[in-house]
Predict the 3D structure of the following.
Amino acid sequence: MDYFMKTLLNAVLLSFFLLLPFQTVAAGDDLTEKDKTAHVYKMYENYKNDFPTVKDIYPAKALELLNEDRVVFVDVREEKEIEVSSLPNTVSRGEFMGNQDAYQKFTIVTYCTVGYRSGKFAEEMEQKGISVYNLAGGILAWVLEGGKVYKNGAETNRVHVYGKEWDYLPREYESVKFGLFDRLF
């Protein structure tokens, strides 16, 4: 096979892998649930250095507020991540920003996969004088601590974990990772 044909074949194969819409993979490795939880919180604590003044809320307290109908979650992930699953009583970042007054009687909790993007959003809100909390450990900690996730109003066991380095879900959950093309665009 000449150089041109090899290059063309490589380009076609690379395009195929880049265009895969998402990958479904087995959740995590052989860590215990306790070890996964500890790892997620350690990741979050490292990220927290980038937004040290943001108020945290942990899943147990957020679940308590949810059971009392006193919380609204603001999901700051991309729409394609939200389409996989989200926390109950969730609005998107856009919905929240478009109608903040509708949520005044609730405790506002921002979240993402592990808490970095939502921490940065919470910091923005704090600078605008809007009181919000960031869910420590994000959706990963939520499910590791017993919280449920939903798609179209029905409970699901699928969670978008963004990438391999954040794949720390309970064993009964299915990790969803998008392909490189989706991550870039």
About this structure: The radius of gyration is 18 Å. Helices lie at 3-18, 33-48, 59-67, 79-82, 93-98, 116-127, 138-144, 180-184. The beta strands are 22-25, 55-57, 71-75, 90-92, 107-111, 133-135, 149-151, 154-156, 158-160, 174-178. The first helix runs from residue 3 to 18.
